[in-house]
Amino acid sequence: MSDDTALKQKHRALWALGDYPSVADEVIPNLGAVVVEAVAPRPGERVLDVAAGSGNAALPAARTGATVVASDLTPELFDAGRSAAAAAGLEVEWQEGDAEALPFEDQSFDVVVSCVGVMFAPHHERSGSELLRVCRTGGRLGLLSWTPAGFIGRMFTAMKPYAPAPPPGAQPPPLWGDEQHVRGLLGDGTRDLVATLGYARIDRFAQPGEFLDFFKANYGPTIAVYRSLADRPEQQAELDQALLDLAAASFSGGVMEWEYLLVTATAA
Question: pTM value?
């Protein structure tokens, strides 16, 4: 098995941990609609949701009348998406696919989107090239990513000292939330690239401890770090405190605001 194959298998297993669909549905239920609204799919257009998870962006895209394909490395997440689509009377095609090697022809989509998804593919240049490859000339790209300075970016920073070292060449996910980084990845293949900061209003948690318990039980990256500390209770306690402190500093009136970068562009 090649190193890259092993890495992808690890990533697939990571996102199958816990219950990511509950994170999407309960914590950030409206975030996919933000990126879909920004690119405004039209009836009959072909839309690809990359690293779609359970369809946080794919379902809002389908509501526009577009023909939607949801692709993800972890097909275990599709069951929740299929159920939600069926309940809403929406048609979405679900297809397993690696964001760094998408199983689609060149220029086969009018719109390509990703909502806090493609940012987690480890090799940014590869996934950036794939987004451009499958989008037709004149088509639209819409990407929403957590920023390094926002809550999720700082959460990953807090977890880093306790996590296993990343494999060589893997890049930090929140870099997709840095405008200059994204321009470096996509700029030559796009025109009219616009990057805008926004904030997701998180009202799912009443207090920091509730946030911590939920993410330890449901969010794959957090679960993976804690599992790596299974025989180190002191470090588990340190990480608990770091995340509780971070969450406490981010609460205001029972609400948290998580910063994201929304990027829209036209494929050149």
Answer: 0.96
Give dist(CA 132, CA 135) in Å, integer: 5
* pLDDT 10s digits, 77-124: 999 999 999 999 999 999 999 999 999 999 999 999 999 999 999 999
Question: DSSP for 35-87?
Answer: HHHHH---TT-EEEEET-TTTTTHHHHHTTT-EEEEEES-GGGHHHHHHHHHH
| 8-42 confidence digits (pLDDT tens) | 999 999 999 999 999 999 999 999 999 999 999 99
Q: Which domains does the chain have, with CATH numbers?
A: 3-161+170-201+257-267 (3.40.50.150)
On the 0-12 / 13-18 / 19+ scale of CB atoms within 10 A, 147 is: buried
